[in-house]
Amino acid sequence: MARLNTSRRRIPRGTVRFSGRQLTGALGGLLWRSSAERTVARFEEAFATWLGVRHAVAVGSGKVALAAILEACGAKRGQGVVLAAYNVPEVVGVIRGLGLIPRFVDIDPQTFNLDPAAVEAALTPETGFLLATHLYGNPAPLGALKTLARRHGLVLVEDCAQALGARCGRRRVGAQGSPALFSFGPMKALNTLKGGMLTTGDSGVARRARAVVGRNPAAGRVAVLRTLLSCAAIWVATRPWVFSNGVFPAIRALDGLSPAMVDTLVKMRPAAFDHGVLDIDAMMAPMGPAQAGAGLAVLADLERANERRLSNALRLRDRLRHVPGVSLQQPVADAEPLWTNVVVRVADRLALRRRLLARGVDSTAGYLMDCSRLPNSPGQPEYPHSAELERSNLYLPVGPELGSAEMDRIAAAVEESMASGGDKRDTGAP
Q: Is 429 helix (H, G, I), strand (E, B) or coil?
C-alpha cells in the first residue's frame, strides 16, 4: 500500500489501541482456561502496583465497578449520591438501578468538574455518597471534596474512567485513599476489550466487591471475539490510507445529509444507557481471562502512550489558548491533568465541526450530557453551566497514534475555521 502524503492525511476523531501483543494476550486467555484465575489475578496485581494502591478488583466494565463500590460501601435504597449534572448517562443509570437518588450539582465553568460550593449546598440528611468525576483527564478538586466528605460523613468515590494516569498532589487519581473506578473500553487509554477496575485501600471493601461481582460469569468467548473483531475493524478503518481514502469521504457525505447521522452510526453504546436506569443484577460480572490477558499486554506500554497523548494535548492547547471564540478547560491547583481529550467550547459547534471536516479533521461532540434532562429526572432545576457545555463542546483528537505535525494541522484548521466564518461569542471561560 502506498505511503500517504502527510499533507493529504485525514485525521480521525479517535481510534482504538490495538496491537499484536494485545491480540496474543487475549487469545492466550481464551485458549488456556486452566490458568484463567491466575491471569486475572496477575492483571489486578500489576495494575495495583502501577497505580499505587493495596487492592484492585478487575470487573466487567466501569459501570460494574461503580455499582460494586456503592454496594460494597453499604449503599442503602433511598440514599443520595451527589454528582455533576454534566455526566455520562449510564452513571445515573447505575445509581438509579441500585435504588439510590442522584443529587445533581452544576459544574464549575472553568474546570468542567464539581464545584465544591455547589456540592455543599446540595447535601441533605439522606446524602451518603459523593461521586467526583475527573472529566476529560482533568482531576476534580479532591482536597476540597475530601474535606467536605469527612465533615458530612460521606463516602467519596473517584470516577477515573477518563483520567488513567492523571495526578493530584503528586499521586495518581484513584490512589488518593478513596474507592475509585476505571473503565477499559475499546476507546479508552487502556483497552481490555471492555472491562473495568475498582481500586481501594480497604480490604473489606475489596472482599465485598468481589462477592458482589461474582453474581454472573465473566464475558464468554463469543462476546470477547465479537469485541476483538469490532476493535480490529475500527483499527483498520482509522489507518491513514483507509481513513483518508474511504472512511473520511463517507463521513463528509453523511454529514452533508445529517450531522447527527455520523454520531449515531459510530456510537458504541447501547441505547438503553441513555434511558436513566440499568439492570444491576444482570450486568454484574468479573473480568474474564481474555480481557485480563489483553490488559497485561498493554499495561507495560501505558506510560509511553500517556506521555505521547499528553505531549499532543499540551501542544494543541498552547496553540488554541489565544484563538478568539475558543474556550479551554482549566486545571485546578495542585493537579497534573492528562488531558485524555482536548475539549473546546465554541458558540456554533456545528459550524466549526463542518469547517474542520473541510480541512481534513474529524471531531465529535461526544455523548456526555446534562443528565438532569434524562427521562427519569423530572422536576429538576436548571444547571446552566452543564447545559452550556453540552451545547458547545467539541472533542479534538490528541491520541498517541498522532504526532506534533497532526497537532499543528488541527490547530491551524481551528484557527482558520474561526477566522473564516467566525464564532466570536464569548462562551464564558478564558
A: coil
- Residue 206: how many other CB atoms lie within 10 Å: 22
Residue 376 lies in a domain: yes
Query: Domain of 149: which CATH number?
Result: 3.40.640.10
Contact at 8 Å (CB) between 113 and 107? yes
Phi, psi for residue 347 in degrees, rounded to 5: -75, -35
Q: How far apart are CA 412 and CA 430, in angstroms?
A: 20
What domain range includes position 105? Answer: 14-237+265-430
Contacts with 258 (C-beta within 8 Å, 6 or more apart), sequence order: none
pLDDT tens digit sequence for 178-226: 999 999 999 899 999 999 999 999 999 999 999 999 989 998 888 988 9
In a domain, 260, yes or no: no
Is residue 296 in a domain?
yes
Q: Are 172 and 198 in contact (CB under 8 A)?
A: no
CA angle, 210 then 141 then 74, to 5°: 30
List phi, psi (to 5°) of 393.
Answer: -80, 150
For the chain, how many structural domains are there in total?
Answer: 1
Q: How many Å apart are CA 184 and CA 193, to the nearest integer?
A: 7
Least confident range from 27-36, 327-336, 394-403: namely 27-36
**Predicted confidence (pLDDT) per residue in 390-426, tens digit:** 999 999 999 999 999 999 999 999 999 999 865 444 3
- Per-residue model confidence (pLDDT) at position 33: 65
Burial class (CB in 10 A: 0-12, 13-18, 19+), 270: exposed
**For residue 270, what is the enclosing H or E element?**
none
Q: Is residue 28 part of a domain?
A: yes
- Give me the percent of the chain exceeding a pLDDT of 90: 77
